[in-house]
Each structure stands twice: as C-alpha cells, then as structure tokens.
Amino acid sequence: MTIGKLRVFGVVAVLTAFTLAACSGGGTATTGPGGSAAPTDAAAACASGTTKIQVESWWTTGGEATGLQKLFDQFNKDNPTLCAFNAAIAGGAGTQAKADIKTKTLAGTPPDTFQVHMGHELLDTYVNISAGSVLSPLDTSIIDPTKFPAGVVSIISGKDGKPYTVPVNIHRANELWFSKKVFTDNNLTAPKTWADFFTAADALKAKNITPLALGDNGIWAFGMVFETILIADLGADGFQGLWTGATKWDDPKVTQALNDLKKVFGYVNSDHNALTWDQANQLVIDGKAAMTIMGDWANGDYVAKKYTDYGWAPAPGNDGIYQALADSFPLPSKAANQDGVKKLLAFMASQVGQDIFNPYKGSIPARTDAGQAVDGVLAYNDYQKSAMQDWTKDTVVPSMEHGAAAAPAWASAIEAALTTFQTGGDVTATQAALVQAAKDAGY
Q1: Residues 273 and 341 in one domain
Q2: How many domains does the chain have?
Q3: CB atoms < 10 A from the CB of 305, how many?
Q4: For residues 210 and 208, what is the distance between their CA atoms, to the nearest angstrom?
Q5: How far is CA 76 from CA 53, 82, 331, in A?
Q6: pLDDT at residue 177 above 80?
Q7: Are the C-beta atoms of residues 137 and 241 closer than 8 Å to each other?
C-alpha cells in the first residue's frame, strides 16, 4: 500500500493540536474501543525469568485483542528474554483504562507503554503540558519519518517537533455495516443519503427488523452517529470548521443535523443503553438488525467471529470522506524497562509488526510501505483492501470521539449535551449547549 499525504485531516489536526494546549472523554473506540469481554491475567503467561513489558490497553475482545497478541507472540519469539503482555482493562470504550493510565502516568508510575489516540488525546494529556512532557521523544530508530505520512508524523509530534508515539494503524470511523441477507431479503441497497436511510428504515421497521443497531452504554457510540450526520449535512470543509471556529455551532446546518439525529434515534434498538458496541454489532450478525454505524474495528469483530455475510459503505452522505483516527503506543519517561519498550515500539512501527496486527484489528497500517500479507498470519480482507484505496483518494477529516478533532474537555462537554439530548430530544437546548461548549473551548 502507498499512502499519500494525510490531506486536510493532517492540516486540521496539526492546527488544533497547537492552538489548544487530545480521544474524547468516554470515547474510543477509538481506536479499538474495547468490548464486553473481561481481560485475563496475561502476565501469568510469561515464561519464568523473562523481563515483562506491561502494555496497558482497552483491547479485550475480538480482532483487536487477537491482533495485539499475535504481534506480541512474534516479538516475544524474536526476543526470548522479554515478554510483552496485554494488561487490558475492559469497559466503557476505554474510559476506565484511560483514567487508570492517565492517573499512573502523570503520577510517575506508568505502565511500560500504553494505548493512546494520536492527536489531542496524546499531546494535550501527556506532551504539551505545563509540567513538561511525561513521555520521551522517539528517535529515527523507532519512527522513520520517511515511512509514515507527513500528516501522521505531525500529529504525533510535540511543540518541539519530535514524535512521541508509534501509530500502529489507521481506522475509519464513518462506516455503515449491514447484513447482506437482511438487505437481500428486503430488496435493499446501502443508503447513500440519510433520506435513503429513512426510506429503508421505514420498510424494515414495518417488518419488525431493527433498522440501526446501537450499543451506547458509553455515549461515544451515539456521538459517532452524530458526527456522520454532521459530515453529511455540513460537508467535509464545514465539518472540519467546527473544530477550528470556521463553522459556528449555531449554524442552521447543525440545527438540521440535530433534527436528523433525533429522527435516526427513532430507528435504533430499545436496549441501546445496555449494550456495548460489539453487542450491537452482534445484532447485525444474528440478523436481528439490518445496519450499524461503527468504526472499522467492526470489521475485525466480524473476522474474529468468522462472520462473512456483511457489507459496508460510507455512512449516508459520507461518500468520498474518510473520518480517520489511529491507536498508538508511546515511551513513558519513567517506564521501568526503557530498553525493552524501545525494542517493542520499534517492532510495532515496523512493516512486519503492522502487517501482523492490522488484518486482525480490521484497520489498515499507518506505515506507508505496509499492507502486505505476512506468512503464517491473517491476510488483509476485501474491506481493508477497499479502505486502503479510499485512504489514498478520499478527503480525510478528524474524529471528535476518537481523539483527533477536539481536546478532551471539549469532547466531554459535547457528550454531556448528547446524553441529555437522548432523554429529552430538545434540539434548541442541545444546540445551545454545543455553542457553549465551543465557547468554553475557545471557539
């Protein structure tokens, strides 16, 4: 795969990363979002006498946990005196893990490395902070700037211009997934617009089929749906302007997006607040729901569950627009095993490491010369091949819910407004709250 420059996404993310002091509160999926499974004591699997490398993540289920373990298996085989393991914390799309990581890292007792979204979540929390960075910059033995898109390198770099984390993937957030059988049985095609969606949803609802599966026991999943509607109603430039001040949150198109969101919400499963994202995805697998909007870690979930009867398309109104995010792993300045972590990060940044991990994760590699099958592990599937093509030609925009578009406090304020919106449906009050959140963030 050859990935071109990161286009507008890189520009917007770089500008916002340096104009604000970085995944949303409660968000990310970002990014593998974590699921409903409970973690195991992975450290116990390390052989006696090996030096353990604790990697804290929120990847506990499906392809995301499998992909990381496959990467560790190869690394540990190549480095028999070391043992990298996934110290995963389940729940809340990373909410619990992020809080634990932040507390320990800022207190000077970090895990050896940890999952963090590149962009605001990385830079605002750990790098561009008043007390000074708690992460060490990465040299070219780990991050070769000629092997990653310039925009990616920019948004993993601090104010000093040095990179601070290894991006292991590129995810697409604004994707619609659907059951081919349900669509075929009901003579449906993937909706290109939200008007098309409402027509299909009415037909499905009349047959007692849930049109859109939603699992938002963490509000971030609902926020993702809102973002895709904002992209559809405002276009790429208008959507990006929301995060730079060029588009105002009291714009009539934001009003339209909220009205559309309210209407879409009428087509989701009644138990949405009780489900995780992967449990909602299971409704599609089981044929109980026709569609879901989720990042392409859903692709990894399908692969892990050996489900093949699914289709995909950009979310309605999102054709030609790639909403991107990335998971990454840094080097904490006070990590106990500096040399071992450096070796692990170098492997995570390598072509081989990324091509072991991403086919399971459902994402595509961040490294520009990756994208090839590695002998003995899973190959990229048709979705990922199509995503690689889209990545090189689509307009790229950032994700609020997965750390790139907005500072954590701003994203949390947006999520609070959406939580209230779910219960009351008051468009005017919600838009006023969104305007105030932008004002509080300096826009």
Answers
A1: no
A2: 2
A3: 14
A4: 6
A5: 10, 6, 18
A6: yes
A7: no
Q: Are residues 305 and 344 in the same domain?
A: no
What is the rounded distance in angstroms from the CA atom of residue 346 to the CA atom of residue 351?
10
* Residue 261 and residue 194 share a domain: yes
Asked whether residue 2 is domain-assigned, the answer is no
**For residues 132 and 164, what is the distance between their CA atoms, to the nearest angstrom?**
13
Model confidence over 47-64: pLDDT tens digits? 999 999 999 999 988 889
Whole-number Å distance between alpha carbons of 71 and 73: 5
Task: Give the per-residue pLDDT at 93.
Answer: 58
Strand order in the sheet with 82-86: 82-86, 51-56, 113-114
Same domain? For 33 and 158 the reply is yes
Residue 75 lies in a domain: yes
In which domain, by residue range, is 340 found?
7-171+326-398
Backbone angles phi, psi at 410, to 5 degrees: -65, -45
Token pair of 398, please? 């950032």
Taking 70 as the threshold, does the pLDDT of residue 10 lie above it? no
Question: How does residue 12 score in pLDDT terms, banded at 50, 70 and 90?
Answer: very low
Same domain, 107 and 186: no
Q: Taking the model in full, what pTM does it have?
A: 0.88
* Residue 1 resides in a domain: no
- Mark 197-215 as b/e (b = at least 16 C-beta within 10 Å): bbebbeebeeeebbbbbbb
Residue 243 is which amino acid? W
* β-pairing verdict for 175-179 and 289-293: antiparallel
d(CA 294, CA 290): 13
Q: Which of 104, 105, 65 is nearest to 86 (CA)?
A: 65
Query: What pLDDT does residue 193 have?
Result: 98
Taking only the tens place, the pLDDT of each residue in 285-335 is 999 999 999 999 999 999 999 999 999 999 999 999 999 999 999 999 999
Q: Are residues 365 and 275 part of one domain?
A: no
Which pair of tokens denotes residue 362? 């459902």
Is residue 218 domain-shared with residue 291, that is, in the same domain?
yes
**Collapsed DSSP state (helix, strand, coil) of residue 254:** helix
What pLDDT, in 10s, does the model give residues 363-375? 999 999 999 989 9
